[in-house]
Amino acid sequence: MFIMAGGSGERFWPLSRKAKPKHLLKLVSSKTLLEETALRLQPLAAKPSHLLILTNHEQIPGVRRALPRFPKSSILPEPAKRDTAPAAALATALALRSHPDAVLALLPADAVIGKHPIFRAQLAAAARAAAASSSFVTLGIKPSYPATGFGYLQLGGKTLGKVKGGPFLRVRRFVEKPSLAKAQAYLKSGQYAWNAGIFVWKASTFLSEARRQQPALARFIEKFPKHGSYASYLQREFPKLPKISVDYAIMEGARSVLAIKASFPWDDVGSWTALPAHLPTDKQGNTFRGQVLSMDSRNTLALAEGGRPIALLGTENLVVVDTPDALLVCPKNKVQEVKKLMPLLSKDII
Q1: What's the pTM value of the predicted model, to 2 decimals?
Q2: 239, 267, 295: which is the final residue of a domain?
């Protein structure tokens, strides 16, 4: 199993930074999202070496602080930021080093997931389906509202009826982030699931599809050292790979993708406004953390992380995040645009 722990740290600025992006933050509990993810997956790993983290050099110190007992050899820094398709190719190459019929899972480090036993059972079922077929398998999230910030999966008929843990549904197509009208139609139809970016595949299946769709990824996998050190090869060849997501590069054009409808709660916690669902909220809709003083405020999210109190008077629909060296104040309906501030900020606070 491979955890993707990259990211740029823009959406949760000023709490997040390049060296400390979302998965290294303690947003919804006393643990970082990365630590939560690793703890969820560890019971599925037959050996500690079967759970690896793909990150970058800049974030290695933060990853080690979040997971001090995690084997250092299982924290793998990618030599360049190349998006999720090259990460998937690297994971496949490493899996093939261990076994020609290896089945692997690739998961993001920064989702909030509940009902862990059910999650693990469904991930194990996805692995059985991937091993029994030449299909990629994903866990689709049942939409609870017409989200425009997620990609969708259009689901078709059942297959692999004899594989335990189904039903397994054919993915008819991947749909990009839709308009509100389309999202409402998808929700009403009952034929769509959110794309959580959790994928399971047999290494040989990925290699076959890469040969057909992305020859550069296939060559990288085929020439990857089968024994001994691969450090110099990775340093030399990985930065040459195309910067593209695994969805665009492989999944959308794959011959067969299957989905299991997730039976566990899931949230990608994509912006500041996602936090109130996971943190205590008062009768006025306010969500506060740290030393926050409030009078006549409504629907305000305030995090006092800067070592000083925040005083609110008559605020409404605001996000206020204070850190030792930066302060963010913005309307809730603008939180998706926080990354637009990056060009205006000095490098020492990004």
Answers
A1: 0.94
A2: 267
